Amino acid sequence: MSDDATKAMSLEESNTKKSDTAHDSSPNGETQEGNQTLSKRQRKKLLKHQKWEEERDLRKQKRKERKQQRRLDRVSDEPGEGTTNSRKRLRREVTPSSLRLVVDCSFDELMLIKDVRKLHRQIQRCYAENRRAPHPVQFYLTSLGGQLKQNMDDHDKGWVNWKDITIKTEHYIEVVGKEELVYLTSDSPNVLAELDPTKAYVIGGLVDHNHHKGITFERAKELGIEHAQLPLSSFVKMNSRKVLAVNHVFEIMLAYLEKGNWREAFFTVLPPRKGAVAVGQEDQASQDSDSDASEHHAQDSTTPTMAPPEGNHVETSHTSKEEEET
Ligand SMILES: C[S@@+](CC[C@H](N)C(=O)[O-])C[C@H]1O[C@@H](n2cnc3c(N)ncnc32)[C@H](O)[C@@H]1O
């Protein structure tokens, strides 16, 4: 309480005593004498304080009601009851996948700092997408160190509190059994048909603008581990090479786990481009691209292009060109 209010109260006490003898109360309980002694400001404070005291029970009652309401809200959020809280509902529907996705950060020394920064952003994207996925994977970052770790420390200190991720300084070969590993690489002659939930799929943590073409394929062969490329060619007619960015590969894997269908997974994740085609729809697309020719922008040479499957609305989580960089 402020000094003024304290003073006002002690004055009020003495005035009350006086009024007991004088019997000279006004209708609101103030004494005539007291009113004369108190300044206007003090009287105002005193009244405020009296009101606060009078309403004590009312406030208590309201607190009780709010508590009761919260309890009722919690009960109606229980599974089986209708709920308006979509965040809670989404969290409950999450079924983690046993599939492991490893981002292999052992290429740190091959990258310029600007590409390390891009890789960092791609990894942040992978982390965020996995956290909100209905079937999140067991996410691993291996061989974390060097420029990448420095960049993470400098620009996103929060990474040390990341949840549901295993971060290791060790190489993936020391973390996962050799026979469980499948290196994802566009240079592999093997094409992924399905995902095996018992496997750990490795993505090369590299932004190299194809300066180190085939490097991950060579590494996988040297280590004698399985390798495979995504079945892009079966669903997407590429007008450029089919090397994707780390986050796109990661998101395609998440989308496949959700939809159980490669075609849908590709079209959900990869940015749609006008004039490009889904395999089997070349005729339709060439008509569309003729009419759209004036709007057609230069293609990013690192990005596969495609048209959405007929009747499908393509929602893309892609937000910036930078995230596409390979
Ligand atoms: C930008 S690429 C790196 C390209 C690098 N020159 C290489 O040899 O892998 C990033 C990673 O995404 C994965 N990746 C990209 N496109 C892929 C595809 N079509 N199929 C399978 N994995 C792919 C690979 O793991 C690759 O290392």
Tell me what you see in this structure.
Residues 14-23, 312-326 have a biased composition (Basic and acidic residues). This is tRNA methyltransferase 10 homolog A. One of its GO terms (cellular component) is cytosol. Its EC number is 2.1.1.221. It is an enzyme of class 2 (transferase). The protein has 326 residues and is an alpha/beta fold. It has a domain at 100-324: Alpha/beta knot (3-Layer(aba) Sandwich). 45% of the residues lie in helices and 8% in strands. It has 13 helices and 6 strands. The protein has helices spanning 3-22, 32-37, 40-54, 56-76, 86-92, 113-132, 146-155, 215-223, 232-235, 246-259, 262-269, 282-291, 321-324; strands at 100-104, 138-142, 165-167, 181-184, 200-204, 226-228. Strands 3-2-1-5-4-6 form a 6-stranded parallel beta sheet, sandwiched between helices. α6 (113-132) links the parallel β1 and β2 (138-142). The longest helix is centred in the first third of the chain and has 21 residues, at 56-76. The radius of gyration is 33 Å and the shape is elongated. Residues 4-33, 80-84 and 283-323 have low confidence and may be disordered. S-adenosylmethionine binds at residues 184-186, 203-204, 206, 208, 210, 212-216, 229-230, 232, 242-246, 249, 326. S-adenosylmethionine is lined by residues 184-186, 203-204, 206, 208, 210, 212-216, 229-230, 232, 242-246, 249, 326.
